[in-house]
């Protein structure tokens, strides 16, 4: 079986892939942060969904990055996971 990191490294040689990956980077970062908050809280997707009064499939879509959550949804997720939502803007130079 091929490791995802190996595939990403190989595909990163393609400028079109690199550009698309960089465009989607913030969505991946947000999805990763949501998954980490749920995992730290020790919750399954179904348990988080119950706490947020939604369905497991909604949580799955949020965590996949296919759906962009509203700030209101992020606040509800923070409350459900016992965390605090903090949104920041960073200098583009700091990200490089």
TrEMBL record:
Record InterPro entries: Cro/C1-type_HTH, Lambda_DNA-bd_dom_sf
Pfam entry (one): HTH_3
HTH cro/C1-type domain location: 34-96
Lineage top rank: taxon: Bacteria
GO terms, molecular function: DNA binding
Protein name, per record: Helix-turn-helix domain-containing protein
UniProt source species: Roseospira navarrensis
Record lineage: Bacteria, Pseudomonadati, Pseudomonadota, Alphaproteobacteria, Rhodospirillales
């Amino acid at each position: 079986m091929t490791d995802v990191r190996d595939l990403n490294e190989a595909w990163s040689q393609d400028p079109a892939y690199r550009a698309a990956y960089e465009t989607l980077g913030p969505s991946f970062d947000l999805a990763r942060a949501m998954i980490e908050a749920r995992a730290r809280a020790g919750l399954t997707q179904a348990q988080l969904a119950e706490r947020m009064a939604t369905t497991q499939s909604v949580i799955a879509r949020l965590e996949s990055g296919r759906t962009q959550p509203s700030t209101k949804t992020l606040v509800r997720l923070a409350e459900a996971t016992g965390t605090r939502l903090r949104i920041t803007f960073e200098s583009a130079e700091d990200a490089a």
